Amino acid sequence: MITQEHFKLLAAYNRWANARLYAAALDLSELSYRLHTGVYFGSLHGTLNHLLLTDRLWLKRLTGEGDLPNDLNAILYEDRIELTKARIAEDNRMVEVTGKYDETALRGLYSYRTTSGMPQSQVLADILLHLIQSSNSSSRPSACLSLHPHW
């Protein structure tokens, strides 16, 4: 069973990995950063906006707090500095939210509605794991935890 300590570690790793990703993105030229590469969300900018949007969606489901656009491919921030600031804030929020759950809550069912309005129930631990892994789908946190000296 995944414990609260695992989620605290994964949320901290997620914050660290996003900081590295955004540092690299900020080093790119504007042309490279916004280049339409044929990926689903168009560019790195579109993809980073989508990942922030999905984290906000899940945290809204978990906490009942936060605003969401109606469109899953919405650009939340045109300016990449503002997007970076918002990512930092959301990662800090994720660390805070995951730190509040205890073992009983993690084993319990949590009900929410999808973006299409369909009711869902899932074990909270499964939701949190999906939330944390969705920001870093290119790397698996469990395989990368040992790569950073602080983990």
Based on CA atoms alone, the radius of gyration comes out at: 16 Å
In whole angstroms, how far apart are the ends? Answer: 20 Å
Shape: globular
**Would you identify the regions where 5 or more consecutive residues have pLDDT less than 50?**
138-151
Q: Which structural category do the helix and sheet elements fall into?
A: mainly alpha
CATH overall fold name: Four Helix Bundle (Hemerythrin (Met), subunit A)
Q: Strand order of the main beta sheet, please?
A: 1-2
Question: What keyword list fits this structure?
Answer:
151 residues; Four Helix Bundle (Hemerythrin (Met), subunit A); 7 helices; two-stranded antiparallel sheet; 7% strand; globular; mainly alpha
Tell me what you see in this structure.
This protein is mainly alpha-helical and 151 residues long. The chain has a single domain, classed as Four Helix Bundle (Hemerythrin (Met), subunit A) (Up-down Bundle). The chain is built from seven helices and two strands. It has a two-stranded antiparallel sheet. Helix 1 runs antiparallel to helix 4 and helix 3 packs parallel to helix 4. The protein is globular, with a radius of gyration of 16 Å. The C terminus is likely disordered.
